[in-house]
Amino acid sequence: MEQRKKLTWTICFLAMAAAAAVLFIWNLNAGTVPLSVGYVAEILRGGHMGEAAYRIVWDIRLPRILAALLLGGALSVSGFLLQTFFQNPIAGPFVLGISSGAKLIVALTMIFLLGRGIMVTSGALILAAFAGSMVCMAFLLVLNRKAGSMAVLIIGGVMIGYICSAVTDIVVTFASDADIVNLHNWSMGTFSGTNWDNVRIMTPVVLAGAAGAFFLSKPISAYQQGEDYARSVGVNVRRFRIWLILLSGLLSACVTAFAGPISFVGIAVPHLVKSLLGTSKPILVIPGCFLGGAVCCLLCDLIARTIFAPTEVSISSVTAVFGAPVVIWLLVTRRKER
């Protein structure tokens, strides 16, 4: 029986890795300017295939694909950590309003700095998004302690999201700077415009956050059995919960800073991964979530870029189409279980 489980897990991870590789190549070739696999391969090898094609592959598509891979994984892992923290399968950065809070602070920071002619760095965006995430998380913690109801928590999170999004839209609408007005596309969620400088900043942040979550696999496994059990096996629950908040906030903040708020990935992917693997063991689910989130965002970004090409839709519109049915299924399933 144990051998069969290990075989299943191996096949699942290989399948997700293969899907990520296929989508990586497909994203490089597909777009407003379609390029063949051989043509792209020659460009990547350093062949002189034309300045325009070189810039499309190296300066536009490759950074964007890497961002989708990294940020998709980060968003999924962040969702899993939040679901563990609140012990609620519907918890996620977008639904709880955490992404919207981060979006609001990022927009205000950019308006304040750009309005004074100060250049906004990637590090400043991450810090602003992290601050917004922590403010919303603090409000949710107070709400969770006062209400003690998961339904109230979810409704409160949705309301936070609406308020923050509304304020962001108002601020962006009345912004005078042309660069700030262009924040409208970012506020809807997009990987467009990602460059190599962004990739160099997000890579260590995402990998450090994901590694931190993986190293918490053992206490997460104990915490899933309940706080009393976790304490009985030596877990410092208070410190552990702080780490969950910080890591989930850091990962979701990085996503919001570079791609804006992306809906439903943080909720849907962890549950799909757990269903696929047939287990809730964090040591398997966390890397599975990272791979699954990468596959999900690579696929959704491909659809967003190509379905109505040359017009591009926001990635949140695409992720909502796939993610919302999963959330509805979760709600129906939990109701039947009761």
Summary keywords:
globular, mainly alpha, 15 helices, ABC transporter involved in vitamin B12 uptake, BtuC, transmembrane helix, 338 residues, single chain, Iron ABC transporter permease
Describe how the helices and strands are arranged.
Layout: H1 2-29, H2 37-44, H3 51-86, H4 98-114, H5 122-147, H6 150-173, H7 178-181, H8 183-188, H9 196-215, H10 217-223, H11 227-232, H12 237-259, H13 265-277, H14 282-306, H15 315-337
3D architecture notes:
The mean pLDDT is 84. 79% of the residues lie in helices and 0% in strands. α3 (51-86) crosses α14, α4 packs parallel to α6 (150-173) and α9 runs antiparallel to α14. It has 338 residues and is mostly helical. It has a single domain, classed as ABC transporter involved in vitamin B12 uptake, BtuC (Orthogonal Bundle), CATH 1.10.3470. The protein has 15 helices and no strands.
Written as H for each helix and E for each strand, in order along the chain, the element string is HHHHHHHHHHHHHHH
Round the Cα radius of gyration to an integer and report it. 20 Å
Proportion of helical residues: over 70%
Mean pLDDT, all residues: 84
Let me know the number of strands.
Answer: 0
- Oligomerization category of the chains in this entry: single chain
Tally of individual domains: 1
What's the level 1 CATH class? Mainly Alpha
| Known CATH architecture | Orthogonal Bundle
For CATH, the homologous superfamily is named as: ABC transporter involved in vitamin B12 uptake, BtuC
| Unreliable spans | none
- Give the overall form: globular
Distance between termini? 30 Å
> Tally the helices: what do you get?
15
The CATH topology assignment is ABC transporter involved in vitamin B12 uptake, BtuC
For the sheet with most strands, the description reads: none
**Secondary structural class:** mainly alpha
Determine the strand fraction and express it as a percent band. under 5%
Family: Belongs to the binding-protein-dependent transport system permease family. FecCD subfamily.
Main location: membrane
Transmembrane segments: 7-26, 65-82, 94-114, 120-143, 150-175, 201-221, 242-264, 284-304, 313-332
Protein name: Iron ABC transporter permease
